[in-house]
Amino acid sequence: MNKKIFAVGCLGIIVVGAIVIGAWLMSSYNTLVTKQEKAKTEWSNIDVILKRNQQELNSLVKILRSAKKMNQETVENMVAARAKATQTVIDPTNCTPEQMAAWSAAQGELERAMGRLMVIHEADYPELQGNEHFTKVMDQLEGSVNRLGEVRRKYNIAVEDYMKQSRTFPTVVIAGLFGFGPMYRYEAPANTEEETTDFSELDEL
Asked: Which of 15, 42, 88, 175 lies 20 to 30 Å from 112 when distance is taken between CA atoms?
């Protein structure tokens, strides 16, 4: 009788333990999914703004190319940087640090090139005076640049939150078992922000 009770007790402990472990596995897995999806959503927000930038830049290039006094080399440099930035595509959930760095560098080159164009004053180019389309595009582009900084910050926060969860024991075991790989921050290249707001280059235009 005692042996039977002992066996039932052991079985009960095993069942309870299995339930507890199963609940923990499910909770850890769901938490990782939630945090990774949050980071992916923030990345998609970056992608939306970058695509909007491309549309605005296309309009801006058409306008600037029509300005006879415009330094066309400055415009073409921005066009080249735009092409490189759009050709570099990565998956933030399946990339290497080097790939993320290359992508960030390409975006940084574009931001610097855009910065040189965003200090243009209508007074310096008579062809642009009174051009409502030019003013509208510049305002939209400036707004996109500001929004990009904000969504980049939110993405990095989401990545940091995900990485803390996925690298903390014992959740790191679940991350390894179910293939939750690392994600990397979107770091703006050094001096990007300073260069995009550097008005000293106005005279060079």
From this structure: 42
What is this structure's pTM? 0.78
Q: What is the torsional sign of CA 41, 45, 50, 55?
A: positive
Q: Where are the alpha helices (DSSP H) in 69-185?
A: 72-87, 97-117, 132-167, 171-177
The answer to whether residues 165 and 31 touch, using CB atoms and an 8 Å cutoff, is: yes
* Tokens of residue 75, six digits: 């415009």
Structure tokens at 80: 């080249």
**180 in Cβ contact with 99 (< 8 Å):** no
Residue 156: pLDDT band with limits 50, 70, 90: very high
> Can you state the angle between helices 72-87 and 97-117, rounded to 10 degrees?
160
Which of these ranges, 85-89, 108-112, 131-135, 155-159, has the smallest mean pLDDT? 131-135
